[in-house]
Amino acid sequence: MTAVMTAYPTQALNLTAYNGPLDGYILNCAAQEVDIATGRPLFTWHWQPLNHVDPSECYAAIGEAGSGTVDDPWYYFHINSIQKLDDGNYFISSRHCHTLYLVNPAGDILWKMGGMKSDFTFGPGANFSWQHHARMHGSNTISVFNNGASEYNQEFPYSQGLLLNFDESHKTITLNSARSPFNRTVTTSQGSVQLLDNGDSFVGWGAMPYFSQHDASGNILWSAQFAPSDNEVSSYRVFSHDWVARPIAPPLMPISSPSSSTNATVYAWWNGATEVTAWQLLGSTASMPLAAEILNVIGKVDFETTLTYTGRRQYVFFQVAAMNAKGEILEYSAFTSLNGTTFSKADNQTATALPLN
Questions:
Q1: Residue 338, by phi and psi: left (phi above 0), alpha (psi -120 to 50) or beta?
Q2: How far apart are CA 225 and CA 185, in angstroms?
Q3: The domain at 263-343 falls in which architecture?
């Protein structure tokens, strides 16, 4: 198994040709693929960006993306996505050059898509700038998040997730479909486009804290916002996947102030657990604190589920157990007493659900 990653080493360079200092510095971006088990590098694209992409192709001038000094190097290339293709080539995005590159294992650039020296011509609506998360799908389709703006420039009225058709032999790019934000807002950084198996797509809006799902034509199906737009909360990328998780930490269960040991209300939750469909409430007496008896079972309502006990028998300690759709026990909480003290579950209280792989 391998991993691809980016790096941003600083390099000294005479920048007078670009209105920068003689003893200047740039961030000469690098791409690398490594074998995860051994850490052995399988592909390194380090000096090639500067050797093959002249800094004059950068749309972020010195002073906008760094002043070109050792403490503030010029961020001329800004690599922000890498995709290893089935044929062994690499699909690399340069945000500040507005360009997508096809690079072979030897490090040679096979073609440039977009930017000042594009090998492709673009049809209406297919252009992009300041882009993120470029992905190739098969031999003629590309998805890319078109920011259309940076912190210091704007070319498009609002950002979009684009699905593009490209003809490699004729070097043409045409728009397949576009995904627009519900509020037609420009996103100056970050962002992603994920194509789903059913033809829909999932778009993360980067610096704007929301995400949305779109149909195959790009029409918005729904959108969700996870933070106020003005509090600097963002997401680099957002993906939709099936996910099953069972946290290491046990469920939590505070007790509401009870009127007596025969009347108690508890609140159960297990943050991060995806399998919980019901909660079991258990109680134990002062004389036998670890001998828990089942008092109630309630279907999971939301993040927090309320369980109550009202009865004749006096219980001093309470506990909950998270259950899955098969009625199996996923995990027990600690015991909590009426005065708020806690102690661990009993030794014989073990999960009946099979462990996750």
A1: alpha
A2: 13
A3: Sandwich (2.60)
